[in-house]
Structure formats: structure tokens, C-alpha cells
Amino acid sequence: MSAITASAIASRPADEAAPTLETILAATRSVRGSTAAKIDDIHKITDGLRMLALNALIESARAGENGRGFAVVAAEVREISGRVGAIAQQFSAELARQMQELETMTLAMSSQAAGQRLVDLSLNAIELMDRNLYERTCDVRWWATDSAVVEALTEPAPERAAHASSRLAVILGAYTVYLDIWLCDREGRIIASGRPDRFPVAGQSVRHEAWFNRAMGLATGDDYTVADVARSAQLRDAEVATYATAVRAGGAMHGMPLGVLAIHFDWEPQARAIVQGVRLSEDEARRSRVMLVDARKRVIASSDGKGVLSETVAFDTGGRRAGFAVDAQGTTTAFHLTPGYETYAGLGWYGVIQQRAR
Q: Which residues in 141-150 are b (16+ Cβ under 10 Å) and which e?
């Protein structure tokens, strides 16, 4: 078997696959098997030579004085065959050890490469979500300065609330990733929404919601707050990620807070598209589970649809932003912490992939 050189790889046709760790491992095992077979052949030959030498010694002894010279040759043949056999035995042992070390290193490299690939895919998943949510932070801060929104809180009146509601409906018509948008006064009462026919929430209170209270306490119009992904009873138990900011007097950056604008991101279909869209082979997809988990390691999206908002995934980061580990059953768990995007620092979420061994 000829060696695979760099020039040989470079000269491969474009449609011929480059060697992978799996093919190198298969070639290593093939060489070990072929070498073992050849050494076995050498042992058979040396065994035959020793038998011939023994027979020659017996015959030379019978020939007496006339066979003495032949006996010397026969003894030499037996000695040489013994030495060849010993060398073959030593070579076999050394080669077996070296081939085992090579196979072990190749398996380790294969495991490392496979694990790192899952880490990269975990990063890809959480990064896509980060970019998506960055836009949500921009949306809520921008729409909170809309004149219809500001006026509905500056001089409360039914007609101004209706105008704000119609304005929010226009926004929802263009931004299909949202379930609804709520405009709340400083007491936490919803005075306008974008889909009143679908979600009749006007007049309801959100004063108990953490996102409302945090939004009212924000320092400037450039700040925002976000709630953990949760099911909203007011939105027919849908999974939502709520982003909120204060609506300020005159729409000014440092204006007095008049109330809160809250946008409800339609979490489930958007997150599902990301975790099910990770580029795994057909075989990998059957053995893998792609997840997004929050800072508490609670599953907030899963490619198999299981455990969302109810399951906690146990994995030890060891203080690392990214990495992977293989358990006793051969299951690899890879993770990557949110890197954030632009001015969006992320929420401490992770992309996680668990993959069973073949």
C-alpha cells in the first residue's frame, strides 16, 4: 500500500473525496491486518525451513562421514530460520504496538474533530438566535418613540388609544414574528394592542409582570428589558419572549416615563426553525438533539420538541464558554455560550447538542 502524500491529495480530482479521519482509521486497520497476515506467512516459511533442516540433519547423520558437510549446512539453515522467525516475532510485536498507538491517536483525533464540529454547530444555533433577538431590541426601542404611541399616553383618550392600536396593527402586519404588541400606562393597564380581535387584552393589568416594572425603571430610551421565555395565558398560552421599554414624554431619550411598550416575540416557531435547521447529516440527525437553553440551563427550544420550558439539561462548562464532553455511554454533549451580537450582549443562553454514539 503506497503512502498518501500531500502532492497526491492536491492532485485528486475535484469530485474525489479527500481522506477523512474515518478513512485513515480504516486504512490503518487494513495495514495492520495485511501486515499480520504477511508475518504469519513468514512464520510458516521459517517453520518449514526448520523442518527441512531437521530432516536434513537426520539424513546427514545416517550418511555418516559423507554427510558431515551437509550437516553443517543444515544446522546453519536451521539457525538462520530461527533468527528470521525471532526477528519476525519481534517485528510483529513492535508493529502491533505502534499500529495500536496510531489507531488510538486516530480515534482521539476523530473524537476531537467530531466534538469540535458539534461545538461549532452549537455556536451557529445560538448565534442565529442572538442576531434574531438583536433586532427585537431595536424594534421595541424604535416603536416606543412612535408619535401615536407617545400621544396615547401623553393625553389619554379613547380615540388616541384606538389610533395607537391601529398603528400597532400596521406594525404587526409587517413584522410577522410577533404575536402582539401592548401599550401600557404607568399603572400597568393595557390601553392599546395590535391584535384586539385575536387577543382582547385592553383594560387588563400587567402591573405584576417583572418586565413591566423593570421597564418603568429604565434610565433612558436606549435601554430595554427582556423576560425569560414563558407561556402567556393572555396570548392563548403561547410561548413568548417579551421585550419591553419605557415610553417617554415627547419620545425623548431622557423624557419622563409615561408607560411601557411590550412586544411579544412568537418564540416557538422561530426557535424551532433554528434548532431543526442545524446542518447535520441524516445519520447524525437521527442520533442528535439540538437545543437552546437559558441561563438556568432550562430547555427553551429542542429539535425533538421535548422538555421545552420544563426540562433542565445537566452539563458542566468547567468555566469555559464552549466545549464538549463524552460520557460513559459514548454520548457527546457539546455547548457554546451566547456570543451576543452588535449591542446585544445576550442573556447567558447556550446552544447545546447531544449526540449518541453510533
A: bebbbbebbb
* Angle between helix 158-174 and helix 147-154 axes, rounded to 10 deg: 150
Alpha helices in 144-218 (DSSP H): 147-154, 158-174, 210-216
Residue type at position 78:
R
334's grid cell: 457539546
Provide the sign of the torsion angle of the four alpha carbons 304, 309, 314, 319, taken in this order. positive
Kindly state the cell numbers that stand for 346.
445576550
List pLDDT tens digits, range 248-264. 999 999 999 999 999 99
* pLDDT at 114 exceeding the cut of 80: yes
Is the model more confident about 63 or about 10? 63
| pTM more than 0.85 | no
Q: Do the Cβ atoms of 261 and 140 come closer than 8 Å?
A: yes
At residue 80 the predicted structure's pLDDT band, cuts being 50, 70 and 90, is: confident
Q: What is the pLDDT of residue 51?
A: 73
Q: Specify the long-range contacts of residues 191-197, CB closer than 8 Å, at least 24 apart.
A: 191/152, 191/153, 191/156, 191/161, 191/164, 191/259, 192/149, 192/152, 192/161, 192/162, 192/164, 192/165, 192/168, 193/165, 193/168, 194/165, 194/168, 194/169, 195/169, 196/165
In contact, 353 and 336? CB cutoff 8 Å: no
With CA atoms as reference, report the closest residue to 123 among 294, 338, 279.
338
